[in-house]
Amino acid sequence: MRPFVWTTLTALMLAPALRAQTGSVATRYRAVADRIMNTALADSAAYHRLAVLTDRFGPRFSGTSNLERAIDWILDEMRKDGLDNVRGEPVMVPRWVRGEESAELVEPRPRRLPMLGLGGSVATPASGITAPVLVVKNFDDLARRAAEARGRIVLFNVPFTNYGETVRYRGAGAIAAARAGAVASLVRSVTPYSQQTPHTGGMGYNDSVPKIPHAAITVEDAEMLQRMQDRGERIVLRLRMSARTLPDAPSRNVVAELRGSALPDQVVVLGGHIDSWDVGQGAMDDGGGSVVSWEAVRLLKRLGLTPRRTVRVVLWTNEENGLRGGAGYRDAHVSELSNHVLAMESDAGVFAPSGFGFSGSDAAFATVREIGALLQRIGAGEVTRGGGGADIGPLAREGVPVMGLNVDGSRYFYYHHTDADTMDKLDPREMALCVATMAVMAYVVADLPEPLARR
Amino acid sequence: MRPFVWTTLTALMLAPALRAQTGSVATRYRAVADRIMNTALADSAAYHRLAVLTDRFGPRFSGTSNLERAIDWILDEMRKDGLDNVRGEPVMVPRWVRGEESAELVEPRPRRLPMLGLGGSVATPASGITAPVLVVKNFDDLARRAAEARGRIVLFNVPFTNYGETVRYRGAGAIAAARAGAVASLVRSVTPYSQQTPHTGGMGYNDSVPKIPHAAITVEDAEMLQRMQDRGERIVLRLRMSARTLPDAPSRNVVAELRGSALPDQVVVLGGHIDSWDVGQGAMDDGGGSVVSWEAVRLLKRLGLTPRRTVRVVLWTNEENGLRGGAGYRDAHVSELSNHVLAMESDAGVFAPSGFGFSGSDAAFATVREIGALLQRIGAGEVTRGGGGADIGPLAREGVPVMGLNVDGSRYFYYHHTDADTMDKLDPREMALCVATMAVMAYVVADLPEPLARR
Question: Which of A242, A260, A285 is at the close of a domain?
Answer without folding.
Answer: A242
